[in-house]
């Protein structure tokens, strides 16, 4: 593979980046994303529907554009790759939601302040993932054997998740948090939605800023899993980037939609672990057998839907006693 192979023209890249910036600006300055308020399930549901609808509309536009410019076969292939990548990213982002909930609970962050933390978390995630996708696409284009390392890593991660699925991260003793407290002046106590405060002429960070740091680090860790997973579907950086971005843009709404029902989907982590394991195996066996994108999409959908249905039918261990 020589160079970055993509179906996107510079105009398509510019158009999509412009779309992301416009949507972020609307969220921040028009729809009150930077103002503290408690997000209702209804509001979260509407925004989740908006983001999913926009992703599907984008996919339809991509299909019809490529159908006219590159032919129906390539149009079908690329639109299916986008949808598969988006579904995988959307599914794996649910794991982010569980960890975000643990972080907010550990720091006792009121729900009306969580929205502001998450909007800045999304901004940071977009920048980090853009850098990681660019680097990953370049590495894959120059050293195609790296895909097998991605596969081994995903297989290991999936098995590790299956073994340690019931373990919860120790937020209070997080090394990143300890490092931040060591090198930053922290103004303990409740400071509302502020990230910084002035005391005796000195600037201090608030506990809410420490929460933001943990949110960013958490997303970075999850990106290490999710980005290689999409490279198992496609090596086109435009498809990887757009499917990632749509999932990230809808992450905040997904969090508030699931925050009150997260405990009901106690088996979902098993499904996500099996998704990573399957994708890892798919990448490792590529030299001998290529699993079609349609088959991958079906397996991922069945694993996610199956774990959700099983969660509703099987009670958690503590409730079953």
Sum this structure up briefly:
With 321 residues, the chain is an all-alpha fold.
Describe the model.
By secondary structure, this protein is mostly helical. The chain is built from twelve helices and two strands. The chain has a two-stranded antiparallel sheet. Helix 5 crosses helix 7 and helix 10 runs antiparallel to helix 11. The longest helix is centred in the first third of the chain and has 35 residues. The protein is globular, with a radius of gyration of 20 Å. The model has no long low-confidence stretch (mean pLDDT 82).
* Radius of gyration over all CA atoms, rounded: 20 Å
Helix content bin? over 70%
Strand content: under 5%
Assembly context of the chains: single chain
- Give the termini distance in whole angstroms: 56 Å
Rounded average pLDDT: 82
For the biggest β-sheet, the strand order reads 1-2
What's the overall geometry? globular
Helix-strand pattern, N to C?
HHHHHHEEHHHHHH
Number of strands: 2
Low-confidence residue ranges: none
Instruction: Characterize the largest beta sheet: strand count, sense, and whether it forms a barrel.
Output: 2 strands, antiparallel
Class derived from helix and strand content: mainly alpha
Number of helices: 12
Question: Layout of helices and strands, plus pairs?
Answer:
Elements: H1 10-30, H2 41-69, H3 72-106, H4 111-142, H5 146-163, H6 175-183, E1 196-199, E2 202-205, H7 207-231, H8 237-249, H9 251-258, H10 268-284, H11 293-313, H12 317-320
Antiparallel strand pairs: 1-2
Helix pairs in contact: 1-8, 2-3, 2-8, 2-9, 3-7, 3-8, 3-9, 3-11, 4-7, 4-8, 5-7, 5-10, 6-7, 10-11
């Amino acid at each position: 593979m020589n160079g970055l192979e993509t179906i996107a023209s510079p105009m398509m890249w510019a158009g999509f980046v412009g779309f992301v910036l416009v949507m972020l600006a609307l969220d921040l300055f028009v729809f009150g994303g930077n103002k503290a308020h408690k997000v209702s399930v209804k509001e979260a549901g509407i925004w989740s529907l908006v983001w999913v609808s926009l992703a599907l509309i984008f996919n339809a536009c991509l299909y019809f554009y490529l159908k006219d410019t590159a032919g129906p076969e390539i149009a079908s292939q690329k639109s299916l790759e986008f949808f598969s990548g988006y579904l995988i990213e959307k599914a794996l982002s649910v794991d982010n939601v569980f960890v975000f909930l643990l972080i907010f609970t550990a720091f006792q962050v009121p729900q009306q302040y969580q929205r502001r933390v998450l909007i800045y978390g999304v901004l940071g995630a977009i920048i980090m993932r853009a850098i990681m996708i660019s680097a990953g696409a370049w590495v894959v284009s120059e050293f195609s054997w790296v895909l097998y390392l991605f596969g081994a890593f995903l297989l290991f991660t999936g098995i590790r998740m299956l073994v340690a699925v019931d373990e919860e991260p120790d937020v209070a003793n997080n090394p990143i948090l300890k490092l931040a407290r060591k090198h930053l002046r922290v103004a303990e106590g409740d400071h509302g939605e502020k990230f910084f405060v002035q005391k005796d002429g000195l600037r201090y960070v608030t506990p809410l800023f420490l929460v933001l740091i943990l949110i960013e680090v958490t997303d970075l860790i999850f990106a290490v899993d999710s980005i290689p997973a999409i490279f198992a579907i496609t090596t086109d950086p435009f498809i990887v980037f757009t499917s990632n971005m749509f999932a990230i843009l809808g992450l905040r709404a997904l969090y508030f939609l699931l925050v009150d029902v997260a405990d009901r989907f106690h088996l979902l982590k098993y499904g996500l672990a099996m998704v990573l394991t399957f994708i890892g195996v798919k990448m490792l066996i590529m030299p001998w057998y290529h699993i079609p994108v349609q088959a991958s999409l079906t397996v991922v959908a069945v694993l996610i839907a199956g774990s959700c249905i099983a969660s509703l039918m099987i009670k958690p261990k503590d409730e079953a006693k």
